[in-house]
Amino acid sequence: MTHDLDSMSTVTAYVDGELDAPRRAAFEAALAADAQLQQSVQRQQALRAALREAYDPVLAEPVPAALQAALAPPRAARVFDFATAQAQRDAAVPAAPRAPRWGWPQWGAMAACVVAGVLLGRQGLPGLAPAAQPDLWTAAGSLRAGDRLAQALDDRLATDPAPADAISVGLSFQARDGRYCRSFALPGTAAAPGTPATAGLACRGSRHWEVVATAAAVNAAQEPAASAPGAYRTAATALPPALLAALDGLRAGDMLDAAGERAARSRRWQP
Amino acid sequence: MSESVPEPEAQAQIAALLPRLRRFGRTVTRHREDADDLVQTAVERALLHLGQWQPGTRLDSWLFRIMKNAWIDEVRARGRRDEVLAPEEAGETVGVSETGRQIARLSVQAAMQRLPEDQRMAVGLVLVEGLPYKEAAQVLDIPIGTLTSRLARGREALQATLGDSGGMDA
After folding, report:
1. Is the CB of residue A218 less than 8 Å from the CB of residue A239?
2. Are A128 and A173 a contacting pair, CB within 8 Å?
3. pLDDT band at A93 (very low <50, low <70, confident <90, very high)
4. d(C-alpha A190, C-alpha A177), whole Å
5. Collapsing DSSP states into helix, strand and coil, what is residue B13?
6. Which of B128, B132, B155 lies at the smallest CB-CB distance from A12?
7. What is the SS3 assignment for A136?
8. Is the Cβ pair B108, A54 closer than 8 Å?
9. Greater model confidence, A204 or A4
10. CA atoms of B147 and B150, how far apart (whole Å)
11. Mutation test of the interface with chain B: which of A58, A90, A98, A254, choosing the one with the most B Cβ atoms within 10 A?
């Protein structure tokens, strides 16, 4: 490095976009005639690019449900408008609001309140006959599959014909933590036509299915085929993009094929 | 609860910033879990103190500043405990199809984790988040001259670790 500190700070100021127009023009004039200066600039630009390359993938990661729940309006009126709430939040219902390991203990209570509100919104629509047990419910701070959904997740294969209760199971895969997870779709309610169906991801723990993500289901009929590329995405249900993103973040390897699905089922989805 | 419910627009704006807050969290902390805990703590504080944000100023800078303060509190509270913890295991993100690009990412992250706290924040704000010097200096509560010298030292250390190419030979 033959540049003194002063010209080095000019190089970084240039690369950082901190030079005003006249100084920038003067620097660029000098740059055009100075190969060594060009090398310095390239070196600084390469570092900036390397840092962006290293950290930008975070932007594409699904935002954890607990964080999204924090910003979901807790007012009943909004939460009860389930369709809107789901569409707005995209990746929607928080699975297990994880309390930070430090600070702000009231957080968990607030997030749990939102979960409860959303579930109430889904199950408590006026005129709906109360279900024996909701398909999604909270227990011990996590969102779980109810009996009907759990049974479907336990038993059904993706290739099974559409069943009478219309719960469908789509993709199965193994998550990085070793658990088997499956995508599912719950039908909209007959009592409220137009209510969007709900799609979600559930992972099998030792005793129950934990629902780790949900979103308003994409209506396959309205969805242009071009928006669902990729071989495994041709499975029974078109998954909303937010769920696909969550799924890609969770999975450790390829989707299970029919034989892998059967083998996992015979082990009761235990790794 | 209704008293502390902030304006929905502000909530929506903060929600839109979440991916960037998480990215900044990843540059500030050395552990993935710490990063999300930090964002969660900062968002909680922001919602409680929304009245302190001055409209017309940058909301992202305000949130970065809350994150910075929360992180300083946390580091202080942990005392020297954190120094015993090794930086996050690179193995966690190593997938089936390792590529040169992923390896480059991991080495840049590892180099960042070795920087001192103050340099890491300066580099994160300016080189990753793209904040102007003036904004970054305000976030960190330091004069611009201090910011640029932290940046210079940070850059030097990163380039020394990663090699002249900055670790990214096209």
Report:
1. yes
2. no
3. very low
4. 37
5. helix
6. B155
7. strand
8. yes
9. A204
10. 5
11. A58
Question: Residues of B with CB below 8 A from A63's CB?
Answer: 18-19, 22
Paired tokens of A230: 């990729």
A209-216/A180-186 β-pairing: unpaired
Give this complex's ipTM: 0.85
Distance from C-alpha of B33 to C-alpha of A245, rounded to nearest angstrom: 19
Q: Is A170 helix (H, G, I), strand (E, B) or coil?
A: strand
Summarize pLDDT for B140-155 with one digit per residue, the tens. 999 999 999 999 999 9
Identity of the residue in A18, A64, A100 whose CB atom sits nearest the CB atom of B41 = A100
Q: Cα–Cα distance between A59 and B128 in angstroms, integer?
A: 12
Q: Which residues contact B126 (CB under 8 A, 6 or more apart)?
A: A16, B133, B136, B147, B151
**Sheet of A198-204, strands arranged across:** A136-139, A142-145, A209-216, A198-204, A180-186, A168-174
pLDDT tens profile A207-250? 888 888 777 765 544 434 443 343 333 343 467 777 777 787 88
First to last CA, chain B: 53
Mean pLDDT over A22-30 rounds to 92
Higher pLDDT, A219 or B64: B64
Lowest-pLDDT range of A73-77, A227-231, B115-119:
A227-231
| Contact yes or no for A72/A103 (Cβ under 8 A) | no
Contact pairs from chain A to chain B, CB under 8 Å: 132
Residue of B158, B127, B161, B101 lying closest to B23 (CA atoms): B127
Q: Cα-flanking dihedrals φ and ψ of residue B154, to 5°?
A: -65, -45
Helix (H), strand (E) at residue A113: helix A106-123
Break chain A down into helix, strand, coil percent, rounded to 5: 45, 15, 40
CB A253 within 8 A of CB A171: no
For residue A98, what are the CA distances in angstroms to A48, A58, A231? Answer: 34, 19, 34
